[in-house]
Design brief:
The protein is mainly alpha-helical and 422 residues long. It has 15 helices and three strands.
Length: 422
């Protein structure tokens, strides 16, 4: 007997179906550029934390200034209010950091240099606005410098468009729209203004960009903003594209069903059995969940608070142990039961479950994403789980909203739960 049902109309403030397609194109482009399968370098970490985030904060400060200041300062400087597009190495780290929303927001709030200035008002609206600082606008966007002598990168980034000649190379921009091109130029203009001695793109004179980002990490402490393991997140997220590359993810009806199931997944959290249980999504649901967070954290938080009675569904991708009796394994079995008890449906979808670990060829930027299911191998520690279990993303056993000052969330509370040792 069903205890709860999801509404037929979308409860989301974002159009997640086209955004989910942009999300996948973004990941495919980064993969084709050799970025996601490489260990982010200490240079990239510094560029992201010390240069890019302060740049976005400065942009937000200018956006929130008076129209008079906009006319006099921003217009004169060549910086426009059209958004910002990060360089590709920074885009990947920003992506991974924002997949831990509570840790990301906490880090931003604990860095005075990243605060958005507001007029002297203490209203709740200002508090909420502050938590929306440093959104990706536009989402799922990047720009990448490509040398003329490296045509392979251009071939791999098929969803991007060469929009500008720059020195001995060209700039690739995703998505290929006029508004994104304007935001890309905007970012380079503001970067040059703030950091005149720093290159906007990660350049290594004698190597390709792909090998440039594949440097040895020299400062691991720097890669732990606010205690969050940024490199560990990048390591875990590098194979997410493989899991959402089944041909079904190209089908509009499959994605529409995924959006419906994502809403039901959120509602599951409000049921008596789901309130204090770690719940695990299928990959069909997980794509929508990731897309929702990454498109706009403020709107994600607002949507969750509306659906979850003032709470926010936090995200945890640190549970990767799929062995029998592991936290992830037990939580998925519990999720299946709660889903059946709530909706009277099996918690399984063809083409939207765990696909097994990526083949060795997937690490190559030239990997071809075929429009047919891969052959199932009989080896590997998790081959028996293929098609039967969900994602490695989970929810903590309880949530609060990071924007509501009346919630009992204390800064420093772990957003990630370490997998139990065997």
């Amino acid at each position: 007997m069903k205890e709860a049902t999801a509404k037929t109309t979308s409860p989301f403030s974002l159009d997640l179906l086209p955004l989910s397609k942009s999300h996948r194109e973004f990941l495919k482009t980064l993969h084709g550029l050799g970025i996601t399968q490489s260990v982010p370098s200490s240079k990239s970490v510094r560029r992201y934390l010390d240069l890019w985030l302060p740049l976005v904060a400065e942009y937000n400060n200018r956006c929130s200034s008076s129209l008079e200041m906009v006319d006099k300062e921003i217009g004169a400087s060549g910086v426009e209010l059209v958004g910002l597009v990060p360089p590709s190495d920074v885009a990947w780290l920003w992506h991974c950091h924002r997949l831990a929303p509570r840790r990301y927001v906490e880090y931003i709030h604990n860095q005075p240099r990243l605060a958005t200035k507001h007029e002297e008002s203490k209203t709740e609206e200002v508090s909420v606005t502050e938590t929306k600082t440093l959104e990706a606008d536009p989402p799922f966007a990047l720009q990448h410098y490509h040398r003329e002598d490296n045509n392979a990168e251009c071939d791999e980034a098929k969803s991007t468009e060469i929009v500008e000649e720059k020195g001995e190379g060209k700039v690739l921009i995703l998505p290929h729209t006029a508004s994104t091109a304007a935001a890309a130029t905007n970012a380079r203009v503001l970067w040059e203004k703030m950091y005149p001695t720093e290159s906007f793109f990660l350049l290594c004179p004698e190597t390709t960009n792909s090998s440039c980002v594949n440097l040895t990490i020299q400062d691991e402490e720097k890669a732990n903003p606010g205690g969050f393991d940024l490199l560990g997140s990048a390591l875990r997220q590098k194979d997410f594209l493989w899991q959402i590359s089944d041909p079904n993810f190209d089908e509009p009806t499959f994605l529409a069903k995924g959006l419906e199931n994502y809403h039901k997944f959120l509602i599951l959290r409000t049921t008596p059995n789901g309130q204090n249980q770690i719940i695990v999504p299928t990959y069909q649901i997980d794509l929508m969940w990731h897309t929702h967070m990454l498109s706009h954290l403020g709107k994600y938080d607002s949507d969750c608070r509306h659906i979850l009675d003032g709470k926010t569904l936090h995200h945890d991708d640190s549970l990767t142990d799929r062995s029998e009796g592991s936290v992830l394994n037990v939580a998925f079995d519990a999720t299946k039961k709660i889903w059946w008890d709530t909706y009277g449906e099996e918690y399984r979808v063809d083409g939207g479950m765990y696909r097994g670990e990526p083949p060795a060829a997937f690490k190559n930027p030239h990997f071809v994403f075929q429009h047919k299911p891969p052959s199932v191998t009989t080896d590997g520690p998790n081959c028996h789980l293929i098609g039967n279990v969900g994602a490695s993303s989970t929810t903590p056993a309880s949530e609060t909203s990071w924007t509501d000052p009346n919630q009992d969330y204390a800064p420093g509370t772990p957003a990630f739960i370490a997998a139990a040792e065997k």
